[in-house]
């Protein structure tokens, strides 16, 4: 891995760091505005919907110019969303703008890796890239929690600023600066000698091309299974952030600032699993990691038995490690198959469409469960529970955790059975 690769990695890290810190800051801003609890799920939903809506066009956009330039433009869009949040745009809409930039950023980022490296380096590169992305989730979550926490509120009070400012607003200012730093790194990413594909078609033709690319990837046996796994992974991962936040407050009596640390532990475990997979699982053995996904779903259900902070952190690390271990080889396989079938940018756009459709479905179901099945707070509710759920009631955590874990485990069993059938039929390799 050379300097150019690490420039790509650094730019991705800073951009993802800002995305994740902004998510926590936007949550804090919604709480300051006394928004209903289900708005927190909708915040993530609105961020993700851009990936689905823009999917037919994001791949063509990424392939129409040098991908470092495309990444810089997308960081500018994210920056605009952060500034919009500062000047009064509702957090849900402002974070949707950030999602717009992220949706176009992703095909450029992964497409650049696929163009820059030979295919036998893709699993290792994905290990690095997923490790950096998950490190950004860790530090972004911790940074967002710190900037919006009680310590920063006390510091802000001591500053005696001439204008009223909340911790959420201060956090967003810092995050905007991080987006600027990411855009600066994008400027130095090497330009590759690859054939560009100008966006010469209209929206209708581009949509038809995208549908054709999606069909090709879903009809390819290896692409189909890889896509099913990564779609499940990203849908589950996004929902897991919301589940863990509420679980930590209700089961462990954690403050929201402390609860974000558990999300960081999950992310740290994912980074660990990603690095191990990148080091020891070659591309030709990508499907050997499927049992790890089944184990992850089973472990999620055990969250309901945990009331100790140390045990909770250990469990979250193992869940994260299993998820990172099984998704990285399959993500690399998906990129390789997509690159061979249709080109890097178009392939990643199809992948993003399916994965984020999974996020929309699972996060949307979570929001509906929280909105319609939450129960009034009991008389002996803690002060933390009153502060976080007083206006909405307690979310149905037992149903959510059991349903979530069982769904993941069963889906991974079905995918594993399908893989075994493909082996017997001779359309898959072991």
TrEMBL record:
Region forming the signal peptide: none
Protein name per UniProt: Lysophospholipid transporter LplT
SUPFAM superfamilies associated with the record: MFS general substrate transporter
InterPro entries per UniProt: MFS, MFS_trans_sf
Its membrane topology: Multi-pass membrane protein
Protein's cellular compartments: Cell membrane
Keywords associated with the record: Cell membrane, Membrane, Transmembrane, Transmembrane helix, Transport
Transmembrane segments: 6-30, 42-62, 82-106, 127-150, 170-189, 225-253, 259-277, 289-307, 313-334, 355-374, 394-419
